[in-house]
Amino acid sequence: MPWLALPFGDERKTYLSRLFKVRGIPTLVAVGPSGKTVTTGARNLIMSHGAKAFPFTEERMKEIEAETAEMAKGWPEKIMHKLHEHELLLSKRSAYNCDVCDEAGQIWSFYCEECDFDMHPKCALEEKKESNMDTEEDQKDQGKEEQKANEGWICDGEVCFKG
Q1: Which value, to the nearest 10 degrees, does the dihedral of the CA atoms of residues 151, 157, 160, 161 take?
Q2: Residue 137 has pLDDT above 80, yes or no
Q3: Which residues are CB-contacts of 57 (< 8 A; sequence separation ≥ 6)?
Q4: Residues 103 and 138 in one domain
Q5: Residues contacting 42, CB < 8 A, separation 6+
Q6: Which candidate in 37, 59, 77, 109 could, as Cys together with 118 as Cys, close a disulfide (CB 3.0–4.6 Å)?
Q7: In the prediction, which pLDDT does 5 show?
Q8: Is the model's pLDDT at 122 over the cut of 80?
Q9: Of 67, 64, 71, whose CA–CA distance to 46 is shortest?
Q10: Residue 141 Rama label (left phi>0; alpha psi -120 to 50; beta)
Q11: 91 — alpha (psi -120 to 50), left (phi > 0) or beta?
Q12: CA dihedral 137, 138, 139, 143 (to 10 degrees)
């Protein structure tokens, strides 16, 4: 580990647990160069943001929040998806498993609280993109079919005859 760790049987554990108000293990406390506590929630920050959370300062957390908001710009707040019966809300989720592709995800999910159903934005928005592409391709194909069907016909108002 790139930080100091306290062995389980260390006698300083009781004192440090009281000082940092440790309620469970594992706990990671970030202490700055001056010896002041930066955060007692460093473990959660690492779980949510990985190494990007370093140096665990308020300024860094604000930067991460701005990056997170930018990531979701242009995404719909709510969607209906053919693979789920309820509306899915764009939600911040620290960690989840996508119920569509069965892969781990974090930060953003399209989520149904009623069913505890999570979907990666990639999975949710990919379907939308594909359905839009299908619609455009279908329209092109339909136009070509109509053009073929109309070849050799002359229409005058409501009356058409073979030319």
Answers
A1: -100
A2: no
A3: 38
A4: yes
A5: 28, 29, 30, 53, 56
A6: 109
A7: 82
A8: yes
A9: 64
A10: alpha
A11: beta
A12: 100
Distances (CA, A) of 89 to 67, 93, 102, 108, 110: 20, 11, 19, 10, 5
Flag whether 64 is in a domain: no
- The answer to whether residue 136 scores a pLDDT higher than 60 is no
Q: What average pLDDT is seen over the chain?
A: 82
Q: How far apart are alpha carbons 63 and 77 in whole angstroms?
A: 22
Identify the domain containing residue 84 by its residue range.
Answer: 72-148
Please indicate whether residue 112 or residue 163 has the higher confidence score (pLDDT): 112
Q: How confident is the model at residue 32 (pLDDT cuts 50, 70, 90)?
A: confident
Q: Say which residues have a Cβ less than 8 Å from residue 47's Cβ, sequence separation at least 6.
A: 94, 95
Total tally of structural domains belonging to the chain: 2
Do residues 114 and 86 make contact, with C-beta atoms less than 8 angstroms apart?
A: yes
CB 45, CB 39: distance < 8 Å: yes
Is 144 within a domain?
yes
